[in-house]
């Protein structure tokens, strides 16, 4: 069974440009999470999808970030326009059960390293 | 708000030795989960071990075990018989579970500890 996959693995863009990150969760997983780790700091929650709906987007930094999950399958995270402070590693995770199952394991992708220059 | 602190940015251990990674957290909740995740270089982050706060017994997974001290809000990870493949970034994480629909089981992470196992 394929794990969580993220594309691209690395991206270097100039300040002001647009970048779109993609996450393919494990098939059948309704829950999809985005996290971000800025260099040397903790991994921070960005948002949570249940199927195609945004359940919690309290961690999104600002309106330059737009996440979508068309059809409840893969998800994209677009940054437009990118700023220097957006650099970091963006992780995607998926889990099978709903929020009632508090002990459900979240499976992570390898992350996308974004560098804004 | 919950916080997780990992005070050791980097650690090194000799192969076959034992190493302990520290993690403390702050919460006013009584029921929660704690996790240790491992991310090897350029690879996916994987779950190493999980502890339910209501369980007094420390979780164990093969060479990995935890020392969970609920009153002290401490959750350290012990790796026995360290192997080269244990070289990775280790993240401690907290989760407050929900038991109703429409909620998010988001993880709150520490800053990580980079463990290097030396041959």
How would you sum up this structure, described in words?
- The complex is a heterodimer of chains A (117) and B (119).
- Chain A is an all-beta fold and 117 residues long.
- Chain A contains no helices and eleven strands.
- In chain A, strands 2, 4, 5, 6, 9, 10 and 11 form a seven-stranded mixed β-sheet that branches. Chain A has a four-stranded antiparallel β-sheet with strand order 1-3-8-7, with no helix packed on it.
- In chain A, strand 7 and strand 8 form a beta hairpin.
- Helix content of chain B is 0%, strand content 49%.
- In chain B, a hairpin with a 2-residue loop joins strand 7 and strand 8.
- Chain B is globular, with a radius of gyration of 14 Å.
- Classes of the chains: A mainly beta (117), B mainly beta (119).
Tell me the Rg of chain A in angstroms: 14 Å
Q: What is the terminal separation of chain B in angstroms?
A: 41 Å
Task: Encode the helix/strand succession of chain B as letters.
Answer: EEEEEEEEEEEE
Task: Report the average pLDDT across residues of chain B.
Answer: 92
* Protein chain pair with the most extensive contact, residues per chain: A-B, 32 and 32 residues
The largest sheet of chain B is:
6 strands, mixed
The whole-number mean of residue pLDDT values of chain A reads 91
Task: Give a concise summary.
The complex is a heterodimer of chains A (117) and B (119). Chain A is mainly beta.
Name a few traits of the molecule.
heterodimer, A: 117 residues, mainly beta, four-stranded antiparallel beta sheet, 11 strands, 0% helix, 48% strand, globular, B: 119 residues, 12 strands
List the helices and strands and how they pair.
The complex is a heterodimer of chains A (117) and B (119).
Chain A: E1 5-7, E2 10-13, E3 19-24, E4 31-37, E5 43-50, E6 53-56, E7 65-68, E8 75-79, E9 88-95, E10 107-108, E11 112-116
Parallel strand pairs in A: 2-11
Antiparallel strand pairs in A: 1-3, 3-8, 4-5, 4-9, 5-6, 7-8, 9-10, 9-11
Chain B: E1 3-5, E2 10-14, E3 19-21, E4 24-26, E5 33-39, E6 46-52, E7 60-61, E8 64-69, E9 74-79, E10 88-95, E11 108-109, E12 113-118
Parallel strand pairs in B: 2-12
Antiparallel strand pairs in B: 1-4, 3-9, 5-6, 5-10, 7-8, 8-9, 10-11, 10-12
């Amino acid at each position: 069974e394929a794990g969580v996959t993220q594309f691209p693995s690395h991206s270097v863009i100039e300040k002001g440009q647009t970048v779109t990150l993609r996450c393919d969760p494990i098939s059948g997983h309704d829950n999809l999470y985005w996290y971000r780790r800025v260099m040397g700091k903790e991994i921070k929650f960005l948002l949570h999808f249940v199927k195609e709906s945004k359940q919690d987007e309290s961690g999104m930094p600002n309106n330059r970030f737009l996440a979508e999950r068309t059809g409840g399958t893969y998800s994209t995270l677009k940054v437009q326009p990118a700023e220097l402070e957006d650099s970091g590693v963006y992780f995607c995770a998926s889990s099978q059960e709903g929020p009632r199952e508090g002990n459900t394991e979240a499976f992570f992708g390898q992350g996308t390293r974004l560098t804004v220059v | 708000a919950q916080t997780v602190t990992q005070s050791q940015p980097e650690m090194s251990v000799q192969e076959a030795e034992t190493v302990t990674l520290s993690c403390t957290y702050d919460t006013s909740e009584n029921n929660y989960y704690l996790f240790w995740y491992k991310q090897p270089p350029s690879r996916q982050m994987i779950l190493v071990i999980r502890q339910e706060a209501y369980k007094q017994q420390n979780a164990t997974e093969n060479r990995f075990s935890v020392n969970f001290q609920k009153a002290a809000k401490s959750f350290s990870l012990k790796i026995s018989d360290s192997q080269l493949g244990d070289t990775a970034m280790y993240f401690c994480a907290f989760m407050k579970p929900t038991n109703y629909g429409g909620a998010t089981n988001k993880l709150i992470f520490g800053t990580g500890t980079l463990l290097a196992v030396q041959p």
